[in-house]
Automatic annotation (TrEMBL):
Residues 1-116 form the Creatinase N-terminal domain. InterPro entries: Creatin/AminoP/Spt16_N, Creatinase/aminopeptidase-like, Creatinase_N, Pept_M24, Pept_M24_MAP, Peptidase_M24B, Peptidase_M24B_aminopep-P_CS. CDD domains: APP-like. Pfam families: Creatinase_N, Peptidase_M24. Gene3D superfamilies: Creatinase/methionine aminopeptidase superfamily, Creatinase/prolidase N-terminal domain. Residues 124-325 form the Peptidase M24 domain. It comes from Deinococcus depolymerans. This is Xaa-Pro peptidase family protein. Keywords: Hydrolase, Metal-binding. The lineage of its organism: Bacteria, Thermotogati, Deinococcota, Deinococci, Deinococcales.
Length: 339
């Protein structure tokens, strides 16, 4: 906060509220940090939850009463707000209620802290990924010709739910030509013989997410798609092997992109190499060309090169990787097929 030039901070992003307070009532939860201390604000629906989950003193009200309660403590202070997660309407309300304060736009203050996980957070992501691996292994045999993509997704979702988790995002099951869509969420399409099927899934367990993609073969895919698969696997394995403290997100992205370019698939790799995973599925650090992020021990990132050929199909292989003091540990354990 000192570096950002603010005396107080209004935290409105649900993941950040949870991070600093433990409170999980994302529908209505805010934290105000002032020189005098921290206060959790929520409404009466979450009073018991706030008491149970958070060690912070809390105040139960709805805006504008919430903001009016905070106003006296903020007079003449520079108050930071989270530019990424505050709507224009909410900002206008802050301006109206905190006329005595100077509002300062901040970005990424908490998100930067969240990039390096505590041992408890590493344990939480590890458990989420272990569950996702168990579920994928259980579901893998049902991915065969004649089955709908949706049926695969429903089975994954059901198993996650039964285990006390939920799906971290809309499950991607993209078969045959639909594989050319990096985010081809499961449709009613019936999987055909000789097709590749990309399954991208994550578990959210105790608030922490996992993220993993496997592309599997149903029958014998074409020579072209087997060539694409091998190229993506080569890029993925090389990038995972290069994960260590000190390497930049941009270097890892360039490494994988260079290998795919060597196979004539540079243009087909239509997204970044990876991202951090924790309370949010997509968080820092970023493994993309324009990233200035440098990997540090305790970060958890995905490594997920892909190649997408419109009208033909696609491949993505993604592992979840913990940056350790002397290298890395791959947290995802589902088998990668050899084609
Ligand atoms: C809508 S959540 C999907 C999660 C999925 N596993 C995933 O991360 N897909 C990547 C291709 C992705 O969206 N990458 C982002 C960071 C990007 O390249 O902008």
């Amino acid at each position: 906060m000192r570096r950002a030039g603010v005396d107080a901070l209004w935290i409105s992003e649900a993941a950040n509220v949870r991070y600093v307070s433990g409170f999980t009532g994302g529908k209505d939860g805010k934290v105000l940090i002032t020189p005098q201390g921290e206060t959790l604000y929520t409404d009466a629906r979450y009073a018991v939850q706030a008491q149970e989950e958070s060690r912070l003193p809390f105040f139960i009200a709805r805006p504008p009463a919430t903001l009016e309660h905070a106003a006296p403590a903020l007079r003449d202070l520079r108050v930071g707000f989270e530019a990424e997660s505050l709507s224009v309407a909410d900002l206008e309300q802050l301006r109206a209620c905190w006329a005595g304060a100077t509002l300062v736009s901040t970005a990424g203050l908490l998100a930067d802290l969240r990039t390096v996980k505590t041992p408890d957070e590493v344990r939480a992501v590890r458990e989420a990924q272990a569950l996702a691996d168990r579920v994928f292994t259980q579901v893998r045999p049902m991915i065969r010709a004649g089955v709908r993509e949706l049926d695969v997704a429903v089975e994954i979702e059901t198993l996650l739910r039964r285990a006390g988790a939920e799906s971290a995002f809309d499950i991607i099951v993209a078969s045959g030509p639909r594989g050319a869509m990096p985010h081809g969420v499961a449709s009613g399409r019936v999987i055909g013989d000789g097709e590749l099927v990309t399954v991208d899934m994550g578990a959210r367990l105790n608030g922490y997410n996992s993220d993993m993609t496997r592309t599997v073969a149903v029958g014998t895919p074409s020579d072209e798609m087997r060539r694409v698969y091998r190229a993506v696997l080569e890029a993925e394995q090389a990038a995972v092997a290069a994960v260590r403290p000190g390497v930049s997100g941009a270097e890892l992205d360039a490494l994988a992109r260079g290998i795919l370019t060597g196979h004539g698939l540079g243009e087909a790799f239509a997204h970044s190499l990876g991202h951090g995973v924790g309370l949010m599925v997509h968080e820092g650090p970023s493994l993309r060309g324009a990233s200035e992020d440098i990997l540090r021990p305790g970060m958890i990132v995905t490594v997920e090169p892909g190649a997408y050929l419109p009208g033909v199909g696609g491949v993505r292989i993604e592992d979840l990787v913990l940056v350790t003091d002397d290298g890395h540990e791959v947290l995802s354990s589902s088998e990668r097929e050899v084609l």
